[in-house]
Every structure is written in structure tokens, then in C-alpha cells.
What we know:
This protein is an alpha/beta fold. The protein has helices at 8-19, 30-43, 45-56, 69-78, 81-99, 138-151, 170-179, 189-198, 215-224, 249-260, 275-291, 295-305, 314-324, 336-340, 357-362, 398-414, 418-425; strands at residues 3-5, 106-110, 114-122, 125-129, 155-160, 183-186, 208-210, 229-230, 238-243, 267-272, 306-310, 328-332, 348-351, 388-395. It is globular and about 85 Å long.
Amino acid sequence: MRILELTEETKGNILENLLKRSPNSYGKFEASVQEIIETVRANRDAALFDYTARFDGATINKDNILVTEDEIKEAYDAVDPKLLEVIRKSLVNIRTYHEKQRQNSWFDSQDKGIILGQKVTALARVGVYVPGGKAVYPSSVLMNIVPAKVAGVDEIIMTTPPGKDGKVNPSTLVAAREAGADRIYKVGGAQAIAALAFGTESIPKVDKIVGPGNIYVALAKKAVFGYVSIDSIAGPSEILVLADETANPRYVAADLLSQAEHDEMASAILITTSRELAERVSEEAAKFTAQLSRKEIIQKSLDNYGYILIADNMEEAIAAVNEIASEHMEIVTKNPFEVMTKVRNAGAIFIGEYSSEPLGDYFAGPNHVLPTNGTAKFFSALSVDDFIKKSSIISYSREALEEVYKDIAQFAECEQLTAHANSVKVRFEDEN
Length: 432
């Protein structure tokens, strides 16, 4: 891994390089994505079947697009019982964590018959997109479905691309059933997003679409936002480790590579106050990469978006951390909890040398669907909040309105909205 001094210039160059990975930088694909969306919107199921044949090499039709109970049973038979046990353990942790995020409706009664409040309502139908392709992600199935279930969503529709044999990966199906998906459809890519956004003969329209995907999926979610809600437009995976001389270089190197293996555009950054640690982490990363199964992907990721930055002091390092605003952030320092209080921008923060990033990916409970490409400055992890909406409640008695209606009318007339003013004054016209 390249080792650089942390300066304003290097920080600026790195931020510019990282932003190239954003879905907002891939305008050349937008026309293709828009064409797919419009075709699905117009031709519905027929377009889905055609695109699935073209892009996935699978023959899908109205009779087999929906995953059947027999296919789910077959998946359970195919999955290692030990994996099933782990999925169930992970589910308990994820559900327990997200149950603490539940919000309740509230009402506040005041004098003279005023009631104000907030009504919390779960979304009626949500679409969960689960990618296929380079890797299989049953963990993403759990992370997207569980908060929706905890929120009380009525119906959860899942879509995922089939293999050329027309089947879905068994571990994906088992995870979906365990988490509580109501229906699973064999369709992927931008065409799946379009189907969820507008509906087809087979797939119902949803209120919100969540879940990660490739650049086509990300751009499709961006294009349909407004017709439906979306969670976010996710970019490639990221990890940033903040470490001092007390960190174990093998642990740090291993954690950096855990994200670099996702794809060639993943980012892995170490910011440290120790040159010795920087050099040892670089050496360990090279050793690990040579041994790992996805070494070609890891090496390209490190060559393009891997950095080790040496800071003069911890304050300078933390300032860079907040500027980069990484998806995953590990703190491996003498006083990690003290450092954590100074971190403003990160999707998830892992504290201490035994809080390895995969703990969050698979098992601890917090959601692993996180903001990327610097959006941790203003976005949060996927949560129960993403699957609810809030309605304001307002109730005034005649007595309560009588005290304030002239104020309201004056405000309305100031804005030259006389119908607004009339709406309150008419209730007291007999008195005047």
C-alpha cells in the first residue's frame, strides 16, 4: 500500500479520487438505465422476462418468476445446517438491536382543548433488492428485512437476480425466509428497481425500495426516487482505520483487506500517527493479499483507492477522518472511546482492536447498510426509522381557536393569502 504524509494537498487529492467512485459520477450509464426503466414501465412483465434472458441468461416467465415453497424447501435442504444456525444467531442480535429503535405515536393535551401529537405509521409495502453476481450476500438480506419487520411493514417484497438455471442461491432464500420476506421474485438489475417502483402484472408496486446493488441498480434507484422512496444511493464499500503506535499491524492490515475484497472500486485507508505502524501494515497487507482468494480484486482496490496516511498528531488525523466520512471506521488507539467522542462523520464506528469490521457486517446487530462516498456527513445507517412515516396531529377546541384566530389571520394577510385568513375568521363571523 502507498504511504503518504497527510497534508492538505494529499487529503484533497484523495477526496477527489474517492468521489470518482460515486454513482453521481457515472452519467454515461444513465441513458441506458432510463431506457430500461421506461421499457419496464411500458411493457411490464414482458420487459422483465426479456431483460432477464439478456442479462442473466435465465428463462423467466409468469409461471416461475415467483419463488415457490418447494424452491424454499429445496434451499433449506441445500444449506449447511451450521450456516443456518449462524443465520439464526445473527437474526436474534439484529432484531434485538433494531427493536430499541422503535418509535411510538405521542399526544400532548394542553389547556382549553388543544391536542397536539405525532402518529407513527409503518409503510404498507417495501421492496428489498438483493444483489447477485460476484458474491452472495445473505447478510444483506437480514439487514434490509429485519428493520422493516420490526417497524411493522405489512408486506416485504424481495427481488434478486437468478442464475442461468433460473434458481436463486440457497443461502439467499433461506436468509429471506428466516428474516420474514413475504414474496421473493427472480429478477435483478435496473429492471427489478423499475418493477418495484411502477409495478408489473407479477410484481406489485411498493412504497419504498432498499438494498445495495451495482451501478445500474444505484442509478435506477436514483431515477425512480419521487415515484417511491429509497434508502440511499450506495457507492462502493469503504473502510478507514485510525490507529496509533499501540495498534497491532496484522489486525489493521487484515481489516483493511476485508473491505478491499468487495470490488475493485472499494476503498481502504489507514490514518496513523506512527510511521513504523504504517510500514508494518503495508508489509502485512502485501503478505495477506498474496494468500487470499480474491487477491486480484484486493490488489486493484489497493492500487486505485488504498492509502496509508501519516499524520503529525491525533488532532490532525481526526480532522481528516471527519473530512473523509467513511462508511466503516475503526479506532485502534490508546484511548479509543475518547477519540470516538471527536468523530463526527462515520457510518459505523468500531472501537478497539477486537471490534473487527466483519463483526458489524454479520453478527453484532447494528445495520451494515451504511452511507458511502462522504455521505456519512448527513446520512445515517439503515434503521427502523426508514420504514415508518410520521403524521402531525392537531386538534383545537372553539375556545382555543378563538384566542389565536386573529393572530393567524394577520399572518395570512401578511402573506396576501386572504382565503387562509377567511378560513379561521369565518368561524367567528357571528360574534363580529
